[in-house]
């Protein structure tokens, strides 16, 4: 053992992989003490915790070194494993202070205010790193602490070099965004929280990051939710609001919409339906859930994506009562802003225990639609959101987010009326064209009776030449 204690790290790793268990005893003796001290400074908690962290690290290192024969810078690798494991412990326990080893060469090291500021900065950095997804954190620590290349990190994580580079970029970007959110002004954050509650949408990621690390703003957000619950306690049994509370006219019979302020009710017989909130999202607002069945009309339909130009989403939050439906149909009417038309539905990602239909047919792109809920019996009250995606046409009359433009050799035109596009003249429908929709004419049949077209949304097919009008 005395001889092994003078052996280099590389030789110890080579001997261990060759089956010499004494080699790992030498690694343990060489690094257990320094690693424990390092873990203790990171955790700034009991010595027992630091010993546990290092024990886990050495056990994991032993198994990894035996399974993997790639070269490894042992000292840097062990310290990175220790920091990573300590951060896991911080993330799990979330108690006590956190401190990294001080950089004693910093200017102002003798100034208590400077020392305190530096420690607070390091505390925040460790907390921010702990909040990163595990793979991003591993990639960033390997790059910054070990100086590992993207290729080496990719090999360790089972990724391509480009994939490893992207992980590192996302980790750094995440740390910057967390810092920016933490430094944001609390009054601005609270204004955005109140606005999100008013619109019935989820606060932005920037706001959520700030709230997660700011006790005062988190308390404000909690107060907003508590106030909303208390206001709902004012609702009479059955959620049927009298006209006096609504500040408007009487309901006027079953199935009529009664609106007043932020709350509205549809008074119906039987189980009934209540319109709790309506909101309209516009350009730049994040979508509350993935927008499906909107084809080429929304450039980024994923949840949380910003709505592109000329796009709105009209949403209604409704509550359906439990029990069998015995009265008039449960419906809610949604209307697009002026100059816009419905291009598709906006439904929650989750599957609902009740059917939903829209009238008129959305392919006709109406401005106003009636959403009807099915007659299924509900075992318990159902609260959900339904809506429609609305679009405003561009100068060519296209509602597409990225419309196909007429190319050289083609003739710009439009569909005279709503019609079908066929795969073959008069046979096999390939899509529907609405009246006025921009199209490009590619060619005609020998008789001239049919025209081969491609629409602004990419639909191709044959339509009767008599249904092609000048644009």
What do you see in this structure?
The chain has about 475 residues and is α+β, with helices and mostly antiparallel strands. It folds into four domains: about 5-185, Orthogonal Bundle (Rna Polymerase Sigma Factor, Chain: A); about 195-230, no CATH class; about 240-390, Sandwich (Immunoglobulin-like); about 410-470, SH3 type barrels (Roll). It has twelve helices and 16 strands. The chain has helices at about 10-15, 20-45, 45-65, 75-95, 110-130, 135-145, 150-155, 160-185, 185-200, 205-215, 215-230, 245, and strands at about 255-260, 265, 275-280, 310-320, 330-335, 340-345, 355-360, 370-375, 380-390, 410-415, 420-425, 425-435, 440-445, 450-455, 460-465, 470. The strands form five sheets. A five-stranded antiparallel beta sheet has the order 15-14-13-10-16, with no helix packed on it. Strands 3-4-9-6 form a four-stranded antiparallel beta sheet, with no helix packed on it. Strands 5-8-7 form a three-stranded antiparallel beta sheet, with no helix packed on it. Helix 6 (about 135-145) runs antiparallel to helix 7 (about 150-155) and helix 8 crosses helix 10. The longest helix has 23 residues, at about 20-45. Residues about 95-120 and about 235-270 have low confidence and may be disordered.
């Amino acid at each position: 053992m005395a001889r092994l204690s003078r052996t280099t790290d590389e030789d110890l790793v080579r001997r261990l992989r060759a089956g010499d268990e004494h080699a790992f005893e030498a690694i343990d003796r060489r690094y257990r003490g320094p690693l424990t001290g390092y873990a203790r400074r990171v955790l700034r908690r009991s010595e027992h915790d630091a010993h546990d962290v290092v024990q886990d690290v050495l056990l994991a290192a032993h198994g990894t070194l035996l399974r993997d024969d790639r070269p490894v810078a042992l000292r840097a690798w062990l310290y990175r494993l220790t920091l990573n494991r300590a951060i896991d412990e911080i993330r799990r326990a979330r108690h006590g202070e956190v401190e990294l080893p001080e950089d004693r060469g910093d200017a102002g090291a003798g100034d208590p205010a400077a020392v305190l500021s530096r420690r607070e900065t390091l505390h925040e950095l460790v907390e921010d790193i702990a909040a990163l997804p595990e793979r991003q954190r591993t990639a960033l620590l390997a790059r910054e602490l070990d100086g590992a290349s993207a290729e080496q990190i990719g090999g360790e994580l089972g990724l391509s070099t480009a994939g490893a580079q992207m992980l590192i970029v996302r980790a750094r970007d995440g740390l910057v965004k967390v810092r920016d959110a933490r430094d944001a002004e609390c009054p601005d954050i609270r204004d955005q929280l109140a606005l999100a509650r008013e619109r019935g949408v989820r606060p932005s990621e920037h706001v959520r990051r700030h709230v997660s690390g700011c006790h005062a703003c988190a308390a404000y957000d909690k107060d907003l939710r508590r106030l909303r619950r208390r206001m709902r306690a004012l609702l009479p049994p059955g959620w049927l609001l009298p006209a006096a509370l609504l500040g408007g006219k009487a309901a006027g019979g079953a199935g009529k919409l009664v609106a007043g302020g932020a709350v509205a009710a549809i008074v119906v017989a039987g189980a009934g339906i209540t319109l709790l909130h309506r909101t309209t999202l516009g350009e730049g607002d994040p979508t509350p859930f993935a927008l499906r069945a909107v084809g080429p009309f929304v450039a980024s339909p994923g949840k949380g994506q910003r709505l592109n130009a000329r796009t709105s989403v009209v949403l209604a939050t409704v509550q359906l009562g439990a029990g069998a439906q015995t009265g008039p149909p449960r419906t809610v009417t949604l209307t697009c802003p002026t100059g816009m038309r419905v291009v598709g539905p906006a439904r929650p990602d989750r599957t609902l225990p009740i059917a939903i239909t829209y009238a008129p047919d959305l392919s006709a792109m109406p401005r106003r639609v009636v959403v009807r809920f099915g007659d299924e019996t509900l075992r318990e009250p159902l609260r959900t959101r339904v809506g429609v995606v609305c679009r405003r046409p561009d100068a060519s009359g296209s509602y597409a987010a990225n419309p196909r433009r007429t190319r050289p050799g083609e003739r710009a035109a439009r569909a005279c009326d709503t019609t079908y596009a066929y795969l073959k003249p008069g046979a096999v429908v390939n899509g529907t064209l609405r009246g006025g929709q921009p199209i490009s004419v590619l060619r005609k049949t020998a008789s001239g009776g049919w025209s081969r077209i491609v629409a602004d949304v990419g639909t191709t097919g044959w339509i009767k030449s008599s249904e092609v009008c000048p644009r």
